[in-house]
């Protein structure tokens, strides 16, 4: 009986690790799609409120603004995630021509994007 309980706990723990990794993958893929100009795909992941704030038509302008500030997108250098008040926040460290930026993608419990934001990488982050 104890062995079965240990196996069940291990499976649940591993499932939690995989679940956390899925949000990092979702965040990474969303950022890659954004800079590959797959705007319809990006916008389809927004919840209703965020779709009003950042409709698909505004995404090219958003990318242009980021590029004007940081230069051309080059690569993702790392990700990390955390949970806060039922939301899943993914921090995506991105290298641009001129500087690093941390893009944050916040998901609700239904895996919909509720916030997409960019922050300058002023401090050395753990991503």
Q: How would you portray this structure in words?
A:
With 127 residues, this protein is an alpha+beta fold. The chain has one domain: Nuclear Transport Factor 2, Chain: A (Roll). The chain has helices at 2-35, 39-43, 48-53, 59-70, and strands at 73-84, 87-96, 100-107, 113-120. The protein has a four-stranded antiparallel β-sheet with strand order 1-2-3-4. Strand 3 and strand 4 (113-120) form a beta hairpin. The longest helix has 34 residues, at 2-35. The N and C termini lie far apart (41 Å).
List keywords for this structure.
single chain; 127 residues; four-stranded antiparallel sheet; Nuclear Transport Factor 2, Chain: A; alpha+beta; globular
Question: Summed up, what is this model?
Answer:
By secondary structure, the chain is α+β, with helices and mostly antiparallel strands. It has one domain: Nuclear Transport Factor 2, Chain: A (Roll). It contains 4 helices and 4 strands, in the order ααααββββ.
Radius of gyration over alpha carbons? 17 Å
Strand tally: 4
The number of distinct helices, counting runs of at least 4 residues, comes to 4
Average pLDDT for all residues: 85
The global form is globular
Helix percent reads: 40-55%
Helix/strand structural class: alpha+beta
- Going across the major beta sheet, what is the strand order? 1-2-3-4
Looking at the overall shape, the CATH architecture is Roll
Whole-number total of structural domains? 1
Strand content: 25-35%
Intertermini distance: 41 Å
Top-tier CATH class = Alpha Beta
């Amino acid at each position: 009986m104890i062995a079965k309980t240990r196996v069940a706990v291990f499976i649940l723990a591993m499932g939690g690790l995989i679940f956390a990794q899925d949000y990092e993958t979702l965040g990474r893929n969303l950022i890659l799609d954004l800079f590959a100009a797959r705007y319809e795909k990006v916008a389809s992941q927004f919840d209703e409120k965020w779709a009003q704030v950042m409709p698909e038509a505004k995404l090219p302008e958003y990318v242009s603004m980021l590029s004007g500030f940081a230069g051309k997108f080059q690569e993702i250098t790392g990700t990390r995630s955390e949970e806060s008040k039922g939301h899943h926040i993914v921090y995506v460290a991105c290298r641009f021509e001129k500087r690093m930026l941390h893009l944050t993608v916040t998901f609700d419990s239904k895996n919909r994007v509720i916030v997409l934001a960019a922050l300058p990488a002023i401090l050395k982050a753990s991503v």
